[in-house]
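Predict structure. Chain length: 291.
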Amino acid sequence: MEVIQKISRMRAVAAQLRAAGKRVGCVPTMGYLHEGHLSLVRRCRELADEIVVTIFVNPAQFGPGEDYAAYPRDMLRDADMLAKEGVQLIFNPTPAEIYPEGYATYVEVEGLSRVLEGAHRPGHFRGVCTVVLKLFEIVQPHVAVFGQKDAQQLAVLARMARDLNLPVEIVRAPTMREADGLAMSSRNSYLGPEERKAAAVVYRALRTLQDYAEKGEETSAAKLKKAAMEVLRGEPLVAHVDYLALVDPRTFREVRKVKDDPVLALTAARIGKTRLIDNVLIHEARRSRES
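Prediction complete.
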């Protein structure tokens, strides 16, 4: 395994792989890996000859007062996990390597970046798009795999790739969950024992909404959201719900009715001080048939 920190070296390795006719895959991460990340690596292996996993806690996507300094980091642990998956290349640059002194260029997808996560974390998607575009330029992948848990991020990056004519295939991989339904996330490590038990309510609320909609018991978005909010508010350790929305998965515009077309239900909630996001796709089977 080679852990690469310099852009020049990563570019050279990427050029060698392409010159050898290899299909290059990329899995961008912020590290502190878990089974969800490893599922992305396995999916990428199905699509590429060589995989580059990037590990970079991106300061540009954290706002004032957010958890950039506290975000969990353990490079040795991550490298060991990836070695067991057969990964040979890790790109682990420093912030100064990605954003040298005087750095002043950023990328933003209008519209999609301004709602939900974008509204609650101003500048977040600007930082995400900027770093991912830079990683694509450095690693030169043919394909990149992202998880459905970050559904809005996935939509934003897919739009960026399409709008900028990037020669990278963006692939969606399903959300990986714990036995109680909690979406796997590096931030789950912040949860204390009681908070961890309570955190399962986030997925339970979304499933309540999903079940009502898919069984045809309710089509009103307002009533479906009310049912999910009742589940969330029934858990005392839910400190705050930033948003709960039902949107068109292509445009992220909110819908009033849930009928036959696929609809994405998303939420961001705080369990104690820990902010968790999750989503479920209603009528996903219909979307699969249409794809």
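Summary: The first strand starts at residue 2 and ends at 4.
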